[in-house]
Design goal:
four-stranded antiparallel β-sheet; Jelly Rolls; alpha+beta; 6 helices; 16 strands
Length: about 350
């Protein structure tokens, strides 16, 4: 038997290279994928003609579906089924579930869904093989809640709740830049749309939450913040990524113990609570006029000048180039110390939740 460390050489002429299309979405147009963790649920707005497929990923996981119309009345006929459950699993999740279901509860309350006499559909069971799928066709407009309910597992048990995957094929395909936003995590105090090639400034109080959402996916954004108390004293000390990296011991903070962003005085400004993307940049400046001058686009709109315009009159001195935490940027330092950049990882609806 050959012990050569080299791979076998295929016979024949070399094969042509594959054509790679950066940023190409893997799913076909009109197809959406949702992952429901065990003891979790997802709420999806649906329209007549949509097709829903639920996949039992690991097998043995029950699934409950609850649909309702614009009035909030539950009716499994919306996706062509008859009720066989009173939604006991969903009700238990909403009552006993953890804080991750808070936005789901508020979404149900916002839609005035009537759960007292809920008519649900339960599919799958403990003997369901892994990979089993169940398909439904939506008959009329409404919304559906799909849950993967389960009981707390005993220490000697083997009945832990496992994930489900949901595919929704839309009857009406929306343009790529017309993604629908998910329900807010809580009732917003300020709902601000930052349009392309612009910047916005706003005031938040200590303890406020900031949810920064990538609406259509693969859209990078630069974020900067200041202590209002220091600005009152004439000190414009912004979020400092070098100080932050040093104190956190990481390229950029993530939820958990090492989650805070600091200014140059080592005062914490914001902390990361949730991050559905997990890939950002805390090394490069926000784009500046010099960057575009160097690549042959003098006078191009840039983030640093947008920052200067948005912060004018707030006690912040303008800068030629702003340091910032560049959310959703996909950059890295390679083995040769070169900064490289690639397509962002963020999908439509990905967000970073910060607490001031």
């Amino acid at each position: 038997m050959s012990q050569s460390p080299y791979p076998a050489i295929a016979a024949g002429p070399p094969k042509p290279s594959l054509i790679l299309r950066p940023g190409q979405i893997a799913l076909p147009p009109g197809m959406e994928r949702y992952t429901i963790q065990g003891n979790g649920a997802v709420l999806i707005d649906i329209e007549a003609g949509d097709a829903i497929t639920v996949r039992n990923v690991e097998g043995g996981q029950a699934c409950e579906l609850l649909a309702w119309d614009r009035t909030g009345a539950t009716d499994p006929g919306i996706f062509g089924e008859a009720s066989n459950s009173n939604a006991a699993g969903i009700k238990a999740l909403l009552i006993e579930g953890d804080d991750s279901l808070a936005s789901l509860r508020s979404g149900l309350a916002r839609r005035q869904v009537q759960l007292d006499h809920a008519k649900a559909v339960r599919v799958f069971g403990v003997t369901t093989p892994a990979g089993t799928e169940q398909a439904f066709t939506v008959a009329r407009d409404g919304a559906v809640l799909i849950a993967a309910p389960g009981r707390p597992m005993l220490v000697d048990g083997h009945d832990t709740a496992t994930p489900l995957t949901v595919f929704v094929r839309r009857a009406t395909i929306r343009p790529a830049a017309k993604s629908l936003l998910a329900d807010p995590l809580a009732d917003p105090v300020l709902d601000l749309r930052v349009h392309s090639a612009t910047a916005e400034a706003y005031f938040v109080r200590a303890g406020d939450y900031l949810q920064i959402i990538d609406i259509d996916g693969r859209q990078c954004t630069d974020f900067q913040c200041f202590s209002a108390r220091k600005l009152d004293r004439g000190l414009d000390h912004p979020l400092d990524v070098t100080t932050t990296r040093t104190l956190m011991g990481a390229s950029y903070p993530m939820p958990g113990l090492h989650s805070k962003y600091y200014d140059q005085d080592m005062e914490p400004l914001v902390e990361v609570v949730q991050d559905t993307c997990g890939r950002h940049d805390a090394f490069a400046l926000a784009c500046a006029a010099k960057y575009y001058d160097d690549i042959g686009y003098p006078g191009h709109t840039n983030c640093s000048e947008n920052f200067n315009g948005a912060l004018a009159g707030k006690g912040v001195n303008p800068r030629a180039g702003w340091m910032a935490i560049n959310f959703f940027f996909n950059t890295a330092i390679d083995a040769h110390g070169v900064m490289v950049s690639d397509e962002p990882w963020s999908r439509a609806g990905d967000y970073v939740l910060l607490r001031a």
